[in-house]
Amino acid sequence: MGGVVYGAAFDYNAGVSVRHIRVSDIDDLRRILGSKYVQSDINGIFRSVKKDLSEGLQVLFSGTPCQVSGLKKFLRKDYDSLLTVDVICHGVPSPEVFSRYVKEVEKRKSDENGKIFKITHFSFRDKLQGWNSYGVSYQIESSAGSGDSEKIFRGRYEDPYMKGFLNDLYLRESCHDCPVKNFSSGSDISLADAWRIETIMYSPSFDKGFSLAVPHSEAGRKCLYSIGIKWQQADRNFMVLNNPAAFKSATPHKKRKMFFRLINDGKSISEAVGICLPEPTFFSRIMWSISKKLKHYAKK
Question: How does pLDDT run across 256-272, given as a tens digit for each residue?
């Protein structure tokens, strides 16, 4: 019996955007690998999933908790042939913010070189410098076919889009009151980074990254234990302490309204982020580090 997988993929046909796609060829699974820190376009996908299920196909659907919950409500009944996987999500920015950011990057490169440049590959989580030092990278090329091409890497707090995202500066308003926290989406499996894994186990490969997988159903457990990965059991306290987004909605940034006012008044994403999130002083960095450590030990 055949099977299909649904997940979020980059689309480079008109700028750079993220949309859900249907994958039926194992070689195309690479398209839905990796993190996408922007809301994906899911138009028509729920109908496609329902059609596949009604035709007897095995379906794996992956997405954010709200997308999984939305699919479940759309289907209005359970299917033994459906496996759903979501990610522990602290919120998604609007596609409009990401679209403006991409256009600004392309325009800046084009103006510098006197020819049109376009982004042809994008990664929100480039681990070239390690899991704990990930950043944004993108391949940008001349559309004139001259062969001019450059890969650019920026640390996650150096890139304006990622800096704003990680500081919850422009998450969608609905994400600040998420109705599917506490693993209530109905998914079979939830995935996340296993931050601070070094506190419960040792590995010489920490900087390659570790994943946290939380099964919520018998189907989810069977799937996880059937794929031949070595699992390390983690207790709930570890999960709660290091992935609070699973249980609590992100607090709106106090300068969220200012950010949108600035970009609506003509400021670039980079300028608006710079105004709303100025570089911290050395003293404030030290105080932030101390505060973070005190909060961590207070939760133990």
Answer: 999 999 999 999 999 99
